[in-house]
Design a protein that fits this description.
- This protein is mainly α.
- It has a domain of about 35 residues.
- Helix content is about 50%, strand content about 10%.
- The protein has 3 helices and 2 strands; from the N terminus they run ββααα.
- Strands 1-2 form a two-stranded antiparallel ribbon.
- The chain is elongated, with a radius of gyration of 17 Å.
- The mean pLDDT is about 85.
Length: about 100
């Protein structure tokens, strides 16, 4: 999924948010290009998949579940960002 920013179509998972809040916590993975274990199990739990059923899935299917979760989170973040910007534009000047 992409969002056009100027003349460039940017991957939505790489867009920096202006109004994001961060605790500075980073999920660590066991190696490069690997999904952090915590994120994998959050994706599993959100879908109500048991641990045994999760590991019975082919690796590509597990990767797709995690990819869809990441895209969903990015879309929600961008929607929230757009709502904040819209709200600020429509706010009386003295309250911005």
């Amino acid at each position: 999924m992409t969002k056009q920013i100027g003349e460039v179509d940017e991957n939505i998972t790489r867009i920096e948010l202006d109004h994001g809040v961060s605790a500075g916590i980073r999920l660590g993975s066991l190696g490069p290009d690997m999904v952090p274990m915590f994120e994998e199990h959050i994706a599993r739990l959100e879908r109500g998949i048991s641990l045994d059923a999760w590991y019975a899935l082919p690796p590509m299917e597990r990767a797709m579940v995690i990819a869809v979760r990441r895209l969903d989170n990015a879309m929600k973040n961008l929607q929230t960002e757009a709502e904040i910007k819209h709200s600020k534009r429509n706010m009386p000047r003295g309250k911005r």
